User: Fold this.
Amino acid sequence: MAAAASSTSLKHSQSPTTIPCMRHRSLSATFGVTSLSFRRSEPLYRRFVVLSMDAKPTILVAEKLGEAGVKLLKDFANVDCSYNLSPEELCTKISLCDALIVRSGTKVSREVFESSGGRLKVVGRAGVGIDNVDLAAATEHGCLVVNAPTANTVAAAEHGIALLTAMARNVAQADASVKAGKWQRSKYVGVSLVGKTLAVMGFGKVGTEVARRAKGLGMHVIAHDPYAPADRARAIGVELVSFDEAISSADFISLHMPLTPATSKILNDENFAKMKKGVRIVNVARGGVIDEDALVKALDSGIVAQAALDVFTEEPPPKDNKLVQHENVTATPHLGASTMEAQEGVAIEIAEAVVGALKGELAATAVNAPMVPSEVLIELKPFVSLSEKLGRLAVQLVAGGSGVKSVKVTYASARAPDDLDTRLLRAMITKGLIEPISSVFVNLVNADFTAKQRGLRISEERIVLDGSPESPLEFIQVQIANVESKFASALSDSGEIKVEGRVKDGIPHLTRVGSFEVDVSLEGSIILCRQVDQPGMIGKVGSILGQENVNVSFMSVGRIAPRKQAVMAIGVDEEPSKESLKRIGEISAIEDFVYLNL
Ligand SMILES: NC(=O)C1=CN([C@@H]2O[C@H](COP(=O)(O)OP(=O)(O)OC[C@H]3O[C@@H](n4cnc5c(N)ncnc54)[C@H](O)[C@@H]3O)[C@@H](O)[C@H]2O)C=CC1
Ligand SMILES: O=C(O)C(=O)COP(=O)(O)O
Assistant:
């Protein structure tokens, strides 16, 4: 990463403080925060998922969404409900959209993010499974992905139970037979559920609700979930067991885990061979967790007596799909979430999440961004701003041609080490370091990815201070190693560019440059001058700026000793002209100076 040649040439328009936007935004209704006022006219989260949104945003709803949700969206944005778009049509439309809402039927591929040209800021998945969204691509493009994880839980569990009971009593097959004019009572003798063992694979929200209901049907319920707490299972009389124990002892297996690389085709030839002969399988999770060819073989050989499937690897499955056609298979077209109640709930849940994210609020259901509780966020707010500004300052001090590769961030705090969430701060320092010297837009979603991609290593260190832990942090220090500085006094004794800041009365201040203590509020822009300490310097610089009507907000001098080397830090509200900066540089006592945009 090469630093910009001249700090004065840095593009001011990249500064987030220049984005015109609303005042006094609510931080997050979801987190119960009512309202916060910000000194800059910018909601905090806007720094993370920033929109250049002077006009109403546009939201593309690509699959059927409940009316109440659509109404919520329309109150805030232009809403384009276009269903059944081909992948090409979606890619064409997306460049005009700030947000996209989908269900399980739309593939939000890398091409979609690439085609958006950076405008797409939020993808809302109106449901749980996000396996149809390329999360890595979303993150790389700084696009937030939110889902609606709770509103369809009961619907999916009820559908699982519906399939379980219908399968056990051949309801679908018998219904088709009666409609065909037959009366085959002996052919459709079923099996009972009571006393049978049900293995719930994936003991999350849906799995838990299925387990509860199955217990009510008199079944013996066991579950396998490597991440579920045993006490939650025990509380409802379910025993957590290993994968092999679950599949080998079950009469019925119900799948409720997400489709991930680890669960893909988890029911395969090898695992079907471990099952009890005559096992019955329900899948309301994702088709991809079953190797469908292996299931056909297991059905044909009688290892699996019956299967009831709501989901398929390819949806809709091809007409000649062997599973769908199999007489021992009951199939539904991905109806798990399809109740009136669930669809209404999901629509509202996703509309609120998407609108909130577009407004710059933190989304409680963000899938690809760290969640920071609201109380932590409120405390960290001024430090978030300080972090970004220290990053911006530090990188502008790097001499052109030096490559920034290694940055050390030190947080000094009287809090216990595990009582400080630095993810936000690190993301904002990264934003400050990268944005001034590139065209990349960095936010909370893509900060770590962007740093890694640029080979920028950010290490973090904690200094634990004695004293009152009332404030989350005393100071933050940013050091850039192995670079030259265009302002030699910014180098510490050990040769790194070093800047340090604190929050004073809620306002970020620069309190150290190299080995020099200064004190200048981090607002507007800053001029740093190195000089031999002597009377009259402040006046000389001040009068040059005054002649141009540039308002000085702050001045401070840090010096080794009276009349020795000193650094003068001057905060200015307006950007001085090149001519004024040149005149400051020509003051004979000034040995070195740099102008830095914040
Ligand atoms: N058919 C439909 O219309 C619907 C399908 N679903 C699907 O159901 C699945 C579960 O949904 P929720 O319960 O809401 O999600 P959840 O996130 O609450 O639960 C998933 C559980 O699976 C567990 N898990 C992860 N890897 C596992 C593994 N290798 N083995 C066993 N368990 C594992 C997790 O620890 C978690 O407890 C998702 O795939 C979702 O997409 C959800 C709603 C409707
Ligand atoms: O929420 C889920 O994971 C589902 O599978 C529901 O999918 P749908 O929104 O009905 O296409």
